[in-house]
Structure formats: structure tokens, C-alpha cells
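Hey, can you fold this?
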Amino acid sequence: MKKTILMASFLGCTLALQTPYLDASFKKGASFFAAFATAATYRHYQTTMIPIAPEITVENLNIISFEPTTLDATVTKTNSMREVITQIPSKNPIDTAIALEDGRHFTVRNAIPKLKNPTDTIFIYCHGWIGNFLGHPLRGKGIGAAATYNYIKRDILQGVTIAFDFPTDRPQSFNLAQEDDMATVTLILQKVTEINPDARIVLVGDSRGAATILNVMTHADALVVKNVSAVAIECPPISLERVAHDLAWHLPIISSLVHTCVQYALPRYTPGAHIKTVFNGRPFSAHVPIFIGRVMCDSQTHHAAIQEIADHIQKSGHKQVYLYSYTPTLQQQTRQLVWHAKMAQITEYQQAVNAFFKRHSLPHNSAYAEQGIAALLESTQQ
């Protein structure tokens, strides 16, 4: 019976998307619900969807480091990032260099480097849930390195950067920013701090990665985050239940089915269960500046929810909260050029986040930082 309801819901939403006079927000919600229903029905037929808690070890995280370098006689090999990623699943040693179109070069290794200057900065990039419910070819095979490289190419990450794969990317394991995701980021922080005890650490992430960063900063042991000097995140959801709630808002007649579909597609999701969020942890460290980006038409993480996060952090006494908002043009909205957790491709966002890094004496693109000063000042929470 449930399978029939799900399929009927999918067909109804698909027809709604073809109706020209329906409200755009309704169509957007219908499209997401159709995706949920499709994925849920497919997964139900393929497997019993037993929840799986992944094993979290350093070996399972596919850690990759990017270190700015100057090509010389000691650097004998330069590969494209695609070639590097193909080597990640084999677990063989990786020690190569890649050249960017703008002339920058990065040494790439599958190990956490020891900084030449002990007090330099290390960025740790925490990726979102990339792909869809039916999968992504790079999940567990270097997807974190691929996402991190995109941020490096777009001049957001300028210094030594650590990438990794969340081991919770399979639908059976996914439980947004909860214990397993937090344990993964905690482990990375511990290993980076062991090798570089005096380094300044900057946590950067989007979507699931952004939410996990918030939870680690407010729930993990204070010693784990003692070296974190700044946080820069985009499109952080409060929780999976809040995401489902916001999706259901677009379809009030069948809102309960949205949660059912999410439960089928992601079996570790339990509506009403006690979960960890930035709202029920300790206050966000007042000495750690935080930059938050949001897209005003984001239907996966509603802009109002992100405003709640920024307001909550500020109300705890934090004086360095920056909330950058981007409203896509009508053409961008129509073509979905700017969507959830894709702010890295927006020039204005690149400028604003570089201005944030410059203000707090972190590695940055000087030209972008100068161009982003006004946007950064505008984003300061009052």
C-alpha cells in the first residue's frame, strides 16, 4: 500500500510540474517531493534499507592534502585532478602536483602534511551530500577531494587544505550532522592537531558539512576545537527534520508523506528523535569568527532557518557573525544556475569570503578581498 501511495504521489507531482499556471514555489516543492518519492520507491524495491552505521577510521576517510608550491626540479610530475582522484580508491601513495589555469600550483598527497611554519593556517573542507538518492560515482572514492578542488580553483581556499570523504554518504548510513559525521570531523581535527599542534585551523564546508561543523563547534570536547581560528560555511541546514519540514511546507496537503518518503530513502532519519543541533549545544566559541553564506531561493535549506542559526549564535554573545545573502537573478533561478550549496561559483561570494579571511589574517586572494569589503560589512550581524 505504501509503495502504491509513493508512486501515485510521484506521478501526481510530475503532472503538477507540467502545469503552467501553478505557483513557482509549489512547482519547486513538487519537484523535490517527486525526487524523494522516486528514490524511496526505487530503494524499497531494491533493498530492505537496513540502517548501517559506518566504520570511522583514518583509512576509510580518503584524506587528501593540497599544499601551495612552486614547481621546480624537485617536483617532477604534474597531473590533472581527475588523474589524482582515480588513484584515491587504490590507497597507494599519492605524491604529485597539479597546475591551475591561473598559474598556481599545489602539491597533492594522501597524507596530512607537517607545516614548515608551525603556526601557519590549515583549511579543513567538509563536503556536503553530493549527488542524489541513487548515488554518485565518486562517493567513497575521493568526492571530498573533488569538492575541495572546486573551492581551490575558485580562489576560496588559498593555503594548505585537507580534504576527506564522509563515510556516511550511502543512503543507509546518512544521518545529517549527527554522531558519525561529527566523529569524522573530530577525528580529522585530532589528527591535524597531533601533527601540527600550533597550527591555526579554519573549518570550511557546505550543507551537511556546514551543519556538522556547527555541531562539532558546539558539542565536541573543547580540546578538539581549541585550534580552530575561524569558520566559513554555506547553506547549513539545522537538521534533516527541518529540511523535510521546509520541503513539506510547499505541499501542505500531503506534508506527512514527505517525512515518510525521507524515512524510506534515508532509514536512519527518525522524525521527533532527539538530535544534536547548534541550538542545544554549548555557546559557539566567541573568539572564533564565523562567516555564513545563504541563497535566498534555496528550497533545501530555507533562508529563514539560516537566519535563525546566525541569530542564535549572536544572541549567545558572539560579536563576529557574518551572514552573507545572495539573491539569484530570475535567469539564474529559472536555469537553476545558483542552487543549494553552490555558492562557490558566485563571484560576489568569492569576494566576500576572501574579505572575511583577510579581516582575520588568513590566507586569501588579495584582489577578491578588496572587492568584497563592502559585501562583508553589509553581512555583519547587527
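Oh, and this one too while you're at it.
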Amino acid sequence: MRIQYCLRLAALMLPIVYIANCVAADPPSVDEATKTALFESLKGRLSKELPDATIDRDSFGFSFTVKCKSRRVEVQGRNKSGWLPGRARTDIIPDIGGFVAKIEFRDLVFDPKSFAGVPSYGEYVETGSVTQYRNYYFLNNATGWIGLTFDFDKEADPKWLAMFREEIEEHARQKYPDRQNWREYWSTHPETLTASLERFFPNHDGEELIWKFENGEWVCRHHVAECTLYDRDANGRPVESPHNEIGPLNNGFTIRLTTVADPNYSQLRINECKTSNGLWQSYYNSNLVWRSQLYVYVDHGWRTDMDKIIDQLKHAIRHAQSERFAPAQP
């Protein structure tokens, strides 16, 4: 009787064990053969065509990095929300004529997300002298994704990016088509940003603001006047001949948004800077909103609430970005 009871109990438990195993099964991952084939193919081509480059595979096999003419820097970067993290981090960036490429492997469950409705793939984003290209490829054997992030200096040969894309496309197909970068989009759709600025930054201290798009820039002036400034020589001493310039009063400001970076700041890789000429302060930021490719210049008086201005600019720019990918209304 005991033997029959145990056999019946085992028969009843088998379907439950089978179902549990099916539910708990992990999704298929990128096969090692694909990873190894891509790694060895790139390694072979680089050894012949670019012997100065180095290729490293991480210990877990999730990614590998290729570096050519690069260097390590300590940066106080920003997260996607624009806030500064608690401490600086070490980044590897391309030097003059160099590049840094990272190839990542993702499981099928991976879904390339967008931030605030703004995709961060399929485009070229410039920050100073460095341009970043990012995109995702779906493997031909349907076991996962390959992600490519390619940072390159403006003097780097474009054939190296073409080589990486060619090697990846031997195993996968590009998921997202290349599209206009943000600089090109703002230049062809300036009214989108103008409308967003007028909507989310319409006034300051109860007074209406006027936003204008002129000479390729979005400009707003509030409480400004003509002032006399004395330039200084290399020793910091005032020169004899002054000049007149329109600048903000104590509670005023002049805001300029442009897609053109300041060459002096870019050459020094300065993302954010505050200066003063004695009469007013100046603020510069090349990355106020993540990947927007908008450079912000603000001349402001000593009593101007800059925190409020920055918050309103961020809100307006992010809304203009989301408008680009908003679904068309019927």
C-alpha cells in the first residue's frame, strides 16, 4: 500500500515540478560563439589595419572595449536628469585623432529605453571635440542584442566607425535607423524650441518675457542697459580705451541658446563655467540638458535668481525634445 501511495503521489507531483521549471527558466542569452567570433574578427582586423589599438574583453564576457589614442580623465559628470553625482568618476576619452569603442551584449529581455520620451540611439551627438554614436543591433540568430557606443575625436578617421558597424552587421541587423542629430533638428525646426520657451518660461518676477530666434540663436533679454566696460590686458590691467556693451542690471539677464559651442571652452573640455567682469556675472553650460546639443550662455545681474532660470530652461528644452517624438495627432 505504501509503495502504491508513493507512486501515485510522485505522479501527481511531476506536472507541478515540470510547470515550475518552465516558469523559472531563464531567457536565452547571447551565445558564446557569436561573442567569440566577433571578438576574434575585430582583433584580427585591428592587428593588421590599426596595430596601435588595444582590445580588452571583460571578465564576464558581457562587453569588450577598443581604445586608440585615448586617455583617462577625472570628470564631475551629470546624470540623465542633469544633477551632479556625489563624486567624480574616471572616464576614458579619445585624444586627438583617437576613438573609444564599447560593444555590449544584451539578452532578449533587454529593451532599449528612452529618457523622458527621447531616444538616445541612432544619432551622432557632439560634445566639444568629441562625438558619440550609439545604436543597437538585433542578432540574426534571435538570441539577443548588440549595443555599440563609439566616441571619437573630430580628427579621427571615419572609416573606423564604418569598420565596427560592418563587423557587427555580419552577425546582427541594425534595429534603429540613423536620424538627424539634435543640432540638425534645432536648425531645421527652430519654432519647436521657441514655442516651448514661450510656454514654460513666459515671464520672470511677474514681467512678461519675449523670446526671439535671431542669427541662429534663441535670445531673451530682461532688464538690460548699455554699460561701459574696460578690457584688460594679459597682466589684468585695464586698457585705456573702454567700449560700450549691452548688459543686465542687478536683477536682469540676457539668455542665449545656440547649437554652436564656444571654441575656447571646447578646447579646454569645460562643460560648465561661471565668470564675472565686475558689472555682471556670466554662466556657460554645454550640457544643461542631456544630449540636447544646446549651449547655454547667460549674462545675469548679482541679484538674479539663477536657480529658477536654470530650472525653467531645463523644463522648456526637455519638453521641446519630447515634442519631436510625440505621436502625431489624427
